[in-house]
Design brief:
Layout: E1 2-10, H1 27-30, E2 32-33, H2 36-40, H3 51-58, H4 61-70, E3 76-81, H5 88-95, E4 100-101, H6 105-119, E5 124-126, H7 131-135, H8 142-151, E6 165-166, H9 170-190, E7 194-203, H10 217-227, E8 236-244, E9 247-248, E10 254-257, H11 266-276, H12 282-292, E11 294-295, H13 298-301, H14 304-314, H15 317-332, H16 337-343, H17 355-362, H18 373-380
Parallel strand pairs: 1-3, 1-7, 3-5, 6-11, 7-8
Antiparallel strand pairs: 2-4, 8-9, 8-10
Helix pairs in contact: 9-11, 11-14, 15-18, 17-18
Length: 387
Amino acid sequence: MTKKILVLSLDYDDCLLRKYDRYDHLRREKFDAVDFDEVVNNYQAPKGKIKWKKRLLKDNKALFAYISSIAANYDEIIVCCGSNRQNEYSDATNSCRDDLYSGSCYEGLEILVSHLRTLVGVPVQLEQTTTADHFLQRKSGETFSSTLEWAKGLKPKSSFKDCPNDRTKISLHYRLMHYFADKLESFWAKQKEEVKIDYFAIDDSYQGQLKLPNPAIIDGLNEVYRERPQLIPDNTSLFTLPYQNGELKMDCMTKIEGTGAIDRNFDFNMERMMLCSLKGDEIEQRIKLFDRKSCNCWNVFANHKKEEAFFRNLQDPETAFVNEFIERHKLAYSSGFFCGLFNKTNLSDYETLNTRAILKHAKHRTFFGFKNRTCQIVEEMGYNVEP
């Protein structure tokens, strides 16, 4: 028997919460005023700001009705963050745009899921994965849960970490499709069940035609994945659905059946796609990506050489990471006896190393509390490591 799962990957700003809709002159009555500096720079959770919660439920009746109409076709519904609010910094800054509070995306999705549970007769789950968990070497769901606690005033924060994002969301949806394909297949295989996933990318960024050099998000997704269905897992169908001003454009919905294998290194390859979108060699690309915190993955598929480079690395990404680490690790111990003696760490043998072991070891500290050599090398390679 095959389990059918509906994944709703939802954009947030101007899609679920609309400050700049057709009733723009009324927006200051629809949202609470907020002090941007107090929230973003002083990390003070906004208290008593609740108007946005009412707007979230009131302005998305068409979306709720559509989900309710198709829910019976599925064994489970999963909601995840399809917004570029993938870290606490982008979530806070976007929530306070123009000094009007539109709420934390994470709290908004929690509210939306709670409401859906009252409308449909199948289980509805909230998936808390974000790209920040990868870039900041956090546990899966840690960014989501900690930001949610802060937004509710339950736990203070002393800083907001920012991470790279892809304006086009091509890499974001690549990661999410393979994340769910991997996670759900593994879970249901234990129950002797197969799984089929309908993955909906719902976004307001849509023009109905490919306008270069910066196409709208849904137009870019359609172009890239329609021509390259091998980038979508073969247990997954990608649906792109424009949602503008509270109206679902059903006649513009596109379905693309996946034909590819599940990429279980989706985090690595998401980042690889982002790097390939930038100019320069790999070191220059990493510097640009982590300095700018932004990229445009449309560039990968609009340039034949960049696309070739991405697919070349896609074949065996873990080996590439491990091999680069080993080469750098060997060089670190070729600078004399004392350098090696005082920096050596208890890593596994080179023959048994893998990405997970390297990143786990990088979080350890020396006897004196300093970063170990593994951590230093991983950071030189462009990865952030939190203890």
